[in-house]
Structure formats: structure tokens, C-alpha cells
């Protein structure tokens, strides 16, 4: 039976796997979602974040946390867990599309007990962030399957800025 846990200081291992047909919708960049898709996500997008907030408050002795398919969690949610659960030895993030290099910076700053960090299929994690984390925390086993090789989210205004720069370069050449 998997639903037989109570949040508290005795909880050591936690796996959260968000598996549903909605996961495909959750992992679409917000600016690309249709109104229907945004409405679908609005009904559950704070669910895991709220739960992680409770974990941060109530589970200071957590040793391992694994978050898979949690497309709505943010850097702040994970950083809060790192700050509160100082004994955390293993952090696994898989397909958490809003997670960025800020989490890797928090691993360096707040993850003193961490031995293993996995950021698989997290498209907004970069090679630079991974390299910095490896340099500053060489004792941590850092795995990033396809994370830094994926295309990161690009806001429409960022694309517009790049387009303008390219236009200026072409005009002046």
C-alpha cells in the first residue's frame, strides 16, 4: 500500500511521480499554451508546490526526494526543500521543465549533505550551470541526462530581441 505515510520528521524517502495524460500539457511552455490548456493546468498547478512546502516544514530529516514529471514546480520549491532538509543526500529531478540553474546554485549553497543530484530531461538546465556545480561541489555525483542538450524555453520577447540584433547586423554588413 503506497498511501500509508504521514508527513513528519521520521519521513526519510519521498518519490513524487506525476503521471497522467495531462503531463504533456503541463510541460508545454506557458506562453505556447492555449486557453484550454492553461485552464486545465490552473486546476492542479500548485498542488505539488503546496505539498513540497509542507514537506519543507514538516520533514527536516528527509534523506532522498525524487520528483518526476512535476512540470509546475519551480526553482523556489526545490530550493526551499534544500534549505529545510539539511540531511538530504539524494535529489532527483526528472522532466521538471521549470527547473533552472538556480537549483544547481542552491545545491552548492544549501546542499551540504548531498551525495547525488540528478536533473534528467530538465530543459532549462544549462551546461554552464552543470559545470559550475561540478567545480564547486566535486564530491557530488551529478547526472544530467539530456538536460543541458535540450532546447530551453525562450520567451517570445527574447526571440524578438534576437531577431532585431540579427537585422541590425545584416543591415550594417
TrEMBL record:
This is F-box and leucine-rich protein 22. GO terms for cellular component: SCF ubiquitin ligase complex. Gene3D superfamilies: Ribonuclease Inhibitor. The lineage of its organism: Eukaryota, Metazoa, Chordata, Craniata, Vertebrata. Coiled coil: none annotated. SUPFAM superfamilies: RNI-like (SSF52047). GO terms for biological process: SCF-dependent proteasomal ubiquitin-dependent protein catabolic process. It comes from the Eukaryota.
